[in-house]
Amino acid sequence: MSTIGKNLGKVIKALREKKELSQLDLARKVGIDQSMLSLIESGKRGKRMNLDTLGKINKILCPGKLLSELIAMAETNCDL
């Protein structure tokens, strides 16, 4: 499992919780199963995540920010 995948999952989970969204709520907004979001947040799908899915997650959790900013947070292991 890659460090970037784990960190990306942690960042997504922290942002989701900050917005007070459940995994099910976010998954529905993105158009994926809750089980897939769980895998993403646990870092088990981060490296192989579909960019379209990642873009949708970014748009919901970080409106007005570029996808590259979300990835940069994960690369630097940024605390939210």
Tell me what the structure shows.
- The protein is 65% helix and 0% strand.
- The protein has 80 residues and is mainly α.
- The chain has one domain: 434 Repressor (Amino-terminal Domain), CATH 1.10.260.
- The protein is globular and about 30 Å long.
- It starts with a helix and ends in a 5-residue tail after the last helix.
Q: What is the count of distinct domains?
A: 1
Biggest sheet character: none
CATH class: Mainly Alpha
Number of H/I helices = 5
CATH architecture: Orthogonal Bundle
Bin the helical content. 55-70%
Strand content: under 5%
CATH topology: 434 Repressor (Amino-terminal Domain)
Tally of DSSP β-strands: 0
Termini separation comes to 22 Å
* Rg result: 11 Å
**How would you state the average pLDDT, rounded?**
88
Q: Strand pairing plus helix content: what structural class? A: mainly alpha
